[in-house]
Structure formats: C-alpha cells, structure tokens
Design a protein that fits this description.
The protein has 8 helices and 11 strands. By secondary structure, it is α+β, with helices and mostly antiparallel strands. The chain has a 6-stranded antiparallel sheet. Pfam families: PP2C.
C-alpha cells in the first residue's frame, strides 16, 4: 500500500470548500503537542460523493498512526469502487441515490469490515506488529428521489462521535461510545442519566469519588477496528433538514469540550470556520490546569462539520 501523506490525515490540516450547492464542509485535524510530527487521527472527506469519516488510531505510537491511515485509505478506495459500479457511465461521480437496489446499511458495513481487515493485514505489515487498532465514525449523504431531500446514513465503532445540530433543537449525539460508561450502564451499575453527568463533568466537585474514578477511565474503549475480535458495527440513519449541521469528531474534541460547549461553538461561529474553532477551543482546554478542570487532555484533535444549506 502506498504511503498516505497526501491524504487528509497528516499532522495539521484545515480545509473549507463548498462542494455541491446544498452542502458546505469545514474540517481540521492537528497532532497532539506531545508528538507534533505524528498525527494518530485521520480524516476522510469525499465532498463530491458525500462520504465523511474520522479515525482515531489506538496504540500511542506509530502503530496508531498507521492504523488510522490504513483504515481511512481502505474505506475511501472501497467507497470509490462501489460508486463507480453504481454510477457507471458518469464522467463525474456524485452523491449516491437511495434506491431499493442498494442496501445502504450493508454498504456501510462493507466499508468498515474492509477497513478492519486492512488494519489487521496491511496495517500490521506496515507497523511490524499486530498490536494496532483505530476507532471510526463514518457518515454518507444520500439523495432521495424527491429533489432536494437527503438522508444521512452513519456508522461507528469505538468512541469517535457524530452529532447533529438542528436549528430549533438541542445538540443531539447520534452515536453511543463503545466505552466504559456504556458498559457500566449495560451492567446496571449506573443509569443513562448518571453516565451522561459523569461524561459531561468539568470539575471534580461535580462528582463523587467513585464517579470521578469512572470519569478518569471513560476513555477506555471496548472495541475498535483491528482489535482481537471483528467489530460490532452500529448503523443508523436520519433525514437531513435545511440548516442542519453534522459534526464528526475524535475524542480529542469531545473529551476536552462538553456537549453544551460544542453546541455553543457550532451555533456561534460561521460554517466556514466551525471545525477550526472546535479544534482551537479543544486545544485551549487541553492547556488548562487540573485546578481549573478535569477535562484537560492533550490529544490529536479532528473535526468535520457539514452544513446543510438547501
């Protein structure tokens, strides 16, 4: 597999570019300041065909970078192959259309399973170890038969997230992390409300001693691509409305910022700088002292924001 330095994953990148008239995209990724020449996050934005994804490499070394890059490259190549098959005869590929002939959930599963397989094989070969993995949050925009109507199909493994911000509604988290807090809820040790409160805490005095221990371990994930077992892929869909903003981000964003802070930034910044502002605020938070907040976390940081303008 060729090196992927020409993709969107390396070190620090920011792009803002309108694709089709109905959508605009803003995205940015930066490496952790502790290893500024190695970004273990990778992002994927195929503006013309509406495929979006963030990957967060696990491993704390070059293996994490290779895992996320390998998964990103595999997903993009598989997607383009499928689009070329579905849109035969077209000189320029466009957003796929929802149809009875195309099983969209299976399509997303195929992308992620292929990425998982590539991390286990090609990624392990490049890294020189099979101890590598990556999270993924992936979304694809599909055209409906009725003009001007779109549906977002999305899938994830791990703790990279997808959010939806609608003009008249609070920020909605579309994904549920594969992590410690979800496992505690599943085992009925805490409930959903308690898990959310722990996840969103900013200072230690908001939590009990036990809750604080859960908070500090909340970044532990229960599955990823390239892990010891094939992943369980979570897939769903939602209709896109005019004015919607969709955010895909790695935990470098949502571990540093609360959902309320993310919502405020999305609502208060122009669409062409929203990803940059999310990363900027996350980076500032990571510099804060422990006496100020328990959320400060140096990390790679990646955000993709899609604004639906039709």
């Amino acid at each position: 597999m060729p090196q992927h330095r020409n993709t969107l994953s390396h070190i620090a990148k920011e792009f803002v570019k309108p694709a089709l008239s109905h959508f605009s995209f803003s995205y940015r990724t930066i490496a952790c300041e502790r290893h500024p020449t190695r970004n273990e996050d990778s992002i994927l934005v195929d503006e013309r065909t509406g495929l979006l994804a963030v990957f967060d490499g696990v491993g704390g070394s070059a293996a994490g970078e290779i895992a996320s890059q390998t998964a990103q490259f595999a997903a993009l190549q598989q997607w383009r192959r499928i689009m070329q098959q579905q849109q035969k005869g077209r000189k320029v590929l466009s957003y796929p259309e929802v149809s009875e002939q195309l099983d969209l959930c299976t399509l997303l599963e195929q992308l992620i399973y292929d990425a998982d397989d590539q991390v286990r094989t090609e990624g392990a070969r490049r890294a020189g170890t099979d101890d590598l993995a990556t999270t993924v949050a992936l979304a694809a925009i599909f055209r409906e038969a009725e003009a001007g109507h779109y549906t977002l199909y999305y899938a994830h493994v791990g703790d990279s997230r997808i959010y939806l911000l609608r003009n008249d509604q609070p920020l909605q988290r579309l994904t549920k992390d594969d992590g410690l807090l979800a496992k505690l809820v599943e085992n009925r040790i805490i409930d959903e409300e308690n898990a959310f409160s722990i996840d969103q805490a900013k200072t230690s005095d908001q939590l009990s001693e036990t809750e604080l221990s859960y908070f500090r371990l909340r970044g532990g994930i229960t599955q990823a691509l390239g892990g010891p077992l094939p992943p369980t892929i979570h897939i769903s869909q939602i209709s896109i409305q005019p004015g919607d903003r969709v955010l895909l981000c790695t935990d470098g964003i949502h571990d540093n910022l609360t959902d309320d802070e993310i919502e405020h930034i999305l609502r208060s910044t122009p669409r062409n700088v929203s990803a940059r502002e999310l990363v900027h605020h996350s980076l500032n938070r990571s510099h804060e002292s422990r006496s100020e907040t328990i959320r400060a976390k140096p990390d790679d940081m990646s955000a993709i924001v899609v604004t639906c303008r039709f």
